[in-house]
Amino acid sequence: MTTEAETEPARDRGDSSAGLARERILEAAGELFAEYGYDATPTSRIAENARVPKGLIHYYFKRKEDILVALVERLPEQRVRCEEVVVRGDLIGSLRALVGELDRRLRSSLPLSHLLWREADTHEAVRSALTQRFQLIVEQTRRVIEGALPGGSPGDIDTASVLLARAINHDHSTARLRATGVELDREIRLIARALGAGRTAEEQ
User: Fold this and answer.
1) Closest by alpha carbon to 195, among 130, 145, 147?
2) I need a surface site. Which of 66, 85, 178, 190 has the fewest CB within 10 A?
3) pLDDT for 134-162, tens place per residue?
4) Which position has the higher pLDDT, 106 or 4?
5) CATH 1.10.10.60 domain extents, the chain
6) Where is the DNA-binding region (predicted)?
7) pTM to 2 decimals?
């Protein structure tokens, strides 16, 4: 029988020990969900692979779905400093830099990204968490466009930001990052032309 001491991380052992147990649970869950699927993975299997008592999983995560939501937090940070990618007057180059940086960060977690987008179809909480990440991409894209192309039409910039963010999300959700060349180059050039910046950027 699992005792309370086994299921609840003891304060005497320190927060670091409790944090490591939670990380092991998430690591094991991510691997098992990716290999066998969410529905086919019982929490007992997660506990076994994480080498923790099953009760400890329920201590950290009240519902199994909460594990999926917590896995979203393990995706790479998406907040890119605009000053690191924006080149004033070069919209194509600026958007290439933004997409390249986002893709670079994602390369270390492609299986996890693909898993979460797959499960988002049937789990509202996961879908909501991923939607928040999408909105961050939209906002960052808008800031990059405004920085590279000052004085543009706000409505056109908003539309372009959503379109490119959707293209980025599609590549990330299907775990597809091109091995060579500039990611989403065709989409970036199309957006630049629509905003009246394509010809100038291509001539530079």
Assistant:
1) 145
2) 178
3) 999 999 999 999 999 999 999 999 999 99
4) 106
5) 4-72
6) 42-61
7) 0.75
Check whether domain 4-72 has CATH 1.10.10.60, yes or no: yes
Neighbours of 2 (CB within 10 A): 10
**pLDDT at site 41:** 95
Residue 75 DSSP symbol: S
Q: Work out the number of other CB atoms within 10 angstroms of the CB of residue 59.
A: 19
Digit-coded pLDDT (tens) for 49-104: 999 999 999 999 999 999 999 998 888 888 899 889 999 999 999 999 999 999 88
SS3 assignment for the chain: CCCHHHHCCCHHHCHHHHHHHHHHHHHHHHHHHHHHCCCCCCHHHHHHHHCCCHHHHHHHCCCHHHHHHHHHCCCCCCCCCHHHCCCCCCHHHHHHHHHHHHHHHHHHHHHHHHHHHHHHCCCHHHHHHHHHHHHHHHHHHHHHHHHHCCCCCHHHHHHHHHHHHHHHHHHHHCCCCCCCCCCCHHHHHHHHHHCCCHHHHHHC
Q: What mean pLDDT comes out for the span 162-188?
A: 77
d(CA 73, CA 51): 22
